[in-house]
Amino acid sequence: QSVLTxxxxxxxxxxxxxxxxxxxxxxxxxxxxxxxxxxxxxxxxKLLIYDNNKRPSGIPxxxxxSKSGTSATLGITGLQTGDEADYYCGTWDSSLSAEVxxxxxxxxxx
Amino acid sequence: xxxxxxxxxxxxxxxxxxxLTCAVSGGSISSSxxxxxxxxxxxxxxEWIGEIYHSGSTNYNxxxxxxxxxxxxxxxxxxxxxxxxxxxxxxxxxxxxxGSTSHATWGQGTLVTVSS
Lengths: 110, 116
Known about the structure:
In chain A, a hairpin with a 4-residue loop joins strand 7 and strand 8. Chain A is globular, with a radius of gyration of 13 Å. In chain A, strands 1, 3, 4, 7, 8 and 9 form a six-stranded mixed sheet that branches. Chain A is built from no helices and nine strands. Chain A is 0% helix and 45% strand. By secondary structure, chain A is mainly β. Chain B is an all-beta fold. In chain B, 0% of the residues lie in helices and 50% in strands. The mean pLDDT of chain B is 95. The A-B interface holds A 2, 32-33, 35, 37, 43-47, 50-51, 56, 88, 90-92, 96-104 and B 36, 38, 45-48, 51, 59-62, 95, 100-104, 106-109.
């Protein structure tokens, strides 16, 4: 059971928009920055979003992040088949004194 | 561009110690960064193991703390993971990563299987 809760799967058609939620508590998301990672099959995770809504260099603006209270959301617009991957949220948990991740969300582009 | 490369045995016997090294290239391990270990059991999600600063300060996952040691070797520009008393539940792909809670760079990962 992960500390952060994500939906196991989401799906949408090419060109459409999808959002992935990440729910936590005041000890983690509520008081710390959230990061989002994309993991393509058989590869290492890749940082998509850091500090809730910032994109590293090279990440297209189709990817966006937001946070409200104890929840965070990853948005992806203009979906492409190449976006099919597992997506993870992560943050620091001040009560556990540990980094925590969501269980991951599998995105299917129909 | 910093790059990371994990190395170590791919097979460890139950009750033994898992030992992995992460070589840092394209930058100095003494830069202002934390260096982390994250693992992923087959078909499952990510689990943070712990992190180290170049000064030697460490933070460990409380669930693994009694079995984990992370160290840094500045002369070799690398950091290492030791996990003792391993069981089949420790079978996973082990990643090293740069940063603390925002990992901008990851190694390719190495599969470690715990089996006799």
